[in-house]
């Protein structure tokens, strides 16, 4: 079975449930509802083809049968701006023209804000463009794709776009793709991470401990315009997985190694190395008594700490 076939939607969920699942704020959807069938049928939302959660994400309803698989990548190509014009000028279906226009607008908002694109996959009988009776499409299955999609091409002059499933499924990625992936992760873990406030003193002590060198590769962090050395602090066991916010669980890494620790093919191996490094530096800290240039003081959590001066 092809990868495209693997994601063919089978269940019939409501647009409301899927939009909420994707992270869309459904407050107004519920509050502005006056439909006798309940808020899920609120016509202000439930027939829309796109949803925008400002500065966080967009959600698009896309037909699975219109997608393609090219070299293992799943692609959706279309042009909703052209659709909007067609309905405005040819069919006279202004409601469809408006929905198509809003989908095109959503793509532009996502591009301007580098926002994740979530896709509600639809299967069923798709309306034929040339059908003079304008019979609406009939949806038989509707599911939220668990993977976010990437806008790989968008023509600002015409509205033609190409989406590709996944963020890291392209041959090469850059910092904006990482930023997108981070936004998706934050969306998923929002409730979890909101509870964590990192102790600034832990980060500071780890930076002091590193003496400006990456604790994995030993290279000095790059020198900033201010003259400071740049390193990134990293929790060996993530806070979201129950990792403690203590020096024994935090390392200072160069920017490259930090990304590798999160996204590299060898990240499991790196995690083992970092756990050993963090444990070793912690034991050095406890073992090195009355060294020169080291003072001891009581910290507010009554733990003995050393501060290098
Ligand atoms: Zn490094």
**SS-based structural class?**
alpha+beta
How many distinct beta strands?
A: 14
- Low-pLDDT runs of 5+ residues are 288-309
Q: Report the helical percentage.
A: 25-40%
Name the beta content range. Answer: 15-25%
What's the number of domains? 2
Mean pLDDT: 86
- So how many helices? 9
Largest sheet geometry: 4 strands, mixed
- Rg is 25 Å
Order of helices and strands: HHHEEEEHHEEEEHHEEEEHHEE
Question: Which distinct ligands sit in these coordinates?
Answer: zinc ion
Distance between the termini: 63 Å
A few lines on this structure:
This protein is α+β, with helices and mostly antiparallel strands and 309 residues long. Helix content is 36%, strand content 22%.
Mind explaining what this structure looks like?
The protein is α+β, with helices and mostly antiparallel strands. It has two domains: 3-190, no CATH class; 200-308, Orthogonal Bundle (DNA Binding (I), subunit A). It is built from nine helices and 14 strands. The protein has helices at residues 3-6, 15-22, 27-31, 80-91, 94-113, 175-194, 200-210, 255-263, 267-287, and strands at residues 50-53, 57-63, 68-70, 73-78, 117-125, 138-144, 149-154, 161-165, 222-223, 229-230, 232-235, 250-253, 294-298, 304-308. The strands form five sheets. It has a four-stranded mixed sheet, sandwiched between helices. A four-stranded antiparallel sheet has the order 3-4-8-7, with no helix packed on it. Strand 3 (68-70) and strand 4 form a beta hairpin. Zinc ion binds next to helix 8.
Outline the fold blueprint:
Blueprint: H1 3-6, H2 15-22, H3 27-31, E1 50-53, E2 57-63, E3 68-70, E4 73-78, H4 80-91, H5 94-113, E5 117-125, E6 138-144, E7 149-154, E8 161-165, H6 175-194, H7 200-210, E9 222-223, E10 229-230, E11 232-235, E12 250-253, H8 255-263, H9 267-287, E13 294-298, E14 304-308
Parallel strand pairs: 2-5
Antiparallel strand pairs: 1-2, 3-4, 4-8, 5-6, 7-8, 9-10, 11-12, 13-14
Helix pairs in contact: 4-5, 8-9
Bound molecules: zinc ion.
């Amino acid at each position: 079975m092809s990868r495209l076939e693997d994601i063919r939607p089978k269940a019939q969920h409501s647009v409301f449930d899927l939009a909420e699942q994707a992270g869309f704020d459904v407050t107004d959807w519920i509050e502005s509802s006056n439909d006798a069938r309940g808020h899920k049928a609120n016509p202000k939302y439930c027939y829309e083809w796109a949803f925008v959660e400002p500065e966080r994400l967009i959600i698009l309803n896309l037909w699975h049968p219109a997608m393609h698989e090219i070299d293992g990548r799943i692609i959706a190509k279309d042009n909703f701006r052209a659709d909007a014009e067609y309905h405005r000028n040819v069919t006279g279906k202004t409601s469809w023209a408006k929905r198509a226009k809003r989908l095109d607008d959503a793509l532009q908002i996502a591009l301007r804000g580098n926002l994740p694109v979530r896709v509600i996959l639809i299967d069923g009988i798709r309306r034929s463009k040339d059908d003079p009776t304008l019979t609406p499409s009939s949806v038989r299955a509707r599911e939220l794709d668990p993977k976010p999609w990437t806008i790989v091409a968008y023509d600002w002059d015409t509205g033609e776009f190409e989406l590709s499933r996944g963020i890291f499924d392209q041959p090469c990625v850059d910092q904006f793709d990482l930023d997108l992936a981070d936004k998706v992760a934050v969306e998923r873990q929002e409730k979890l991470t909101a509870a964590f406030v990192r102790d600034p003193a832990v980060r500071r002590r780890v930076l002091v401990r590193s003496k400006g060198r990456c604790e994995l590769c030993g290279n000095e962090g790059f020198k900033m315009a201010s003259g400071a050395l740049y390193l990134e602090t990293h929790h060996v066991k993530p806070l979201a997985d129950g990792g403690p916010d203590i020096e024994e669980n935090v390392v200072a890494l160069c920017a490259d190694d930090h990304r590798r620790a999160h996204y590299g093919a060898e990240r499991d191996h790196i995690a083992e190395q970092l756990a050993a490094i963090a444990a070793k530096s912690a034991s050095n800290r406890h073992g090195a008594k009355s060294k020169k240039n080291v003072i001891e003081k009581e910290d507010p959590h009554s733990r003995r700490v050393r501060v290098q001066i």
